[in-house]
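lol ok so funny story. i was supposed to be doing the assay writeup but got distracted and ended up predicting the structure for this chain instead. priorities right. anyway since i did it might as well share w the group, maybe its usefull for someone
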Amino acid sequence: MPTQPLGAQSAHTPLSADDPREIGGYRLHARLGAGGMGVVYLARTPGGRPIALKAVREELAADPEFRRRFADEVASARSIHGLFTAQVVDSGVDAPTPWLATAYVPGPSLQQVIERHGPLPVRTVLLLVAGIAEALQAIHWAGVVHRDLKPANVLLAEDGPRVIDFGIARAADAGGLTGVGLRIGTAAYMAPEQAMGLAVTPATDVFALGALAAYVAGGVLPFGGGPESAALYRVVHEEPDLSLVPADLYDLLRRCLAKHPDDRPAPSELIDAVRAHPAVAAHPDFTDGWLPRGVSSEIAAHGEAPGLAAHGEAPGQIHAQPTLAAPTPTAPAGARQAPGSGDRTDSAPRRARRSRRVVAMLTAAFLLALGGTAYYVLDHRKNTAGDSSEASGSPDNPGRPHTPSSRPPTPSSSPSPKPGYVPDYADAELTAPDPDYEFDLSAGKVVPAETATWYLEVADGEFVLPEDSDAFVAAGYVLSPDDCVRGIETEPVTTLPYDELADERPFCVRSPDGKSIVIVRLIEAVPGEGPVTVVMSRHRQGG
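and the output, tada:
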């Protein structure tokens, strides 16, 4: 059973009444998150520097064996001084509540980045491999094996990755978080020897790095997801699935994922391989442009508002919001090179679509202005020819004359959906860091702009819809799929300015085929071209 790192959610939360206000002389300012071993707080040194302070759970603190192991692991961790690790700055292993303080890294976890932005470009992945390999060198030099290297335990800063929670998970082995025959680590990233409960070595971390890099490059786990037992079986007995990994990375990652530890490269060999790679050789450093633009913008936002960064826990492990544990790439492998990695050079297709939508709406308004009578005549003729019962009365409405509808009929390309909707994804909290990204309404995730077919575009202080989708803004704060259908039929909207969606006022979007509805709440929109955060739930017709 994998132990959870002392992690954090994607945004800080205020201290609760039960939280301490100070630990070890450090004043606490907010919660960064919680994990299997305790709670992580945003704190500050007396001089004002932010730190991540990790306080151990009370039941573990009461276990003498855990305290002994924790003290040993912290002592080892304090001897690690790698530039790509989050430095341990202080600890209180003998305190009533043991704690550990590390340097605060102003950036999201790699797990969060992949969930929000999708797979990363080849050059970015290579530089991440080199930086993490250098971190492993420092960790292994101190006689420590990380044991739980995964995207949630790698934070991204402007000048490269930072590996966190190195070796600390081993202390959980003495604290009741694992049992006889169970393993420390995360199944999807475990080496075969770790999965079988055998001795771990530095090569164990290299295997985890290969699995991590495959996920970052392809967007899927090389040994799949699902139940832990199934993933562990595949790790031990099956070959990794690298079909979505770019060809430039295939051989390197395949070597890292060798079943036998002796067949894996050492961290120093990985660094040499990265430096020799054509995609990196000219610029083997973490300068401007090493990350896609959208990711850089998100990191910059973290730096401006300390406390928003993650410290080890993947989103969804902290609070009940679903995330895509293994997002599927939204573009073919050959077109995946660099989503959001440069300036947005081709927004003409969306502008054209938006212009056509505006023209269509103006045309409809014009026809309505001119054609009330004409619409009545055409509609009356249609009903007279096809079904004269309504004109002369019907069994249900004897003698009821036909009266024209107050609105035009729904176009045949977007039929009114039938009642009866079932949930698809629910309460997915997503952030588009800038207009180079948009919300994929079908998948419930953030994707590079111009890639989704049913989308919510972020532009000019408003959301932009596909021209063939309908929308409705609720008058109150409750909106169901049926409310959405009625609202679209009676009060459809074509523009969704952020100003009119304040206070999380819900709105909905209906798919072009009328079979799906997504209900959206705007959580935050930073002025200008800043990040936009929403919560979305999709409903589709049942049956």
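The chain has 14 helices and 19 strands. The mean pLDDT is 76.
back to the writeup now i swear
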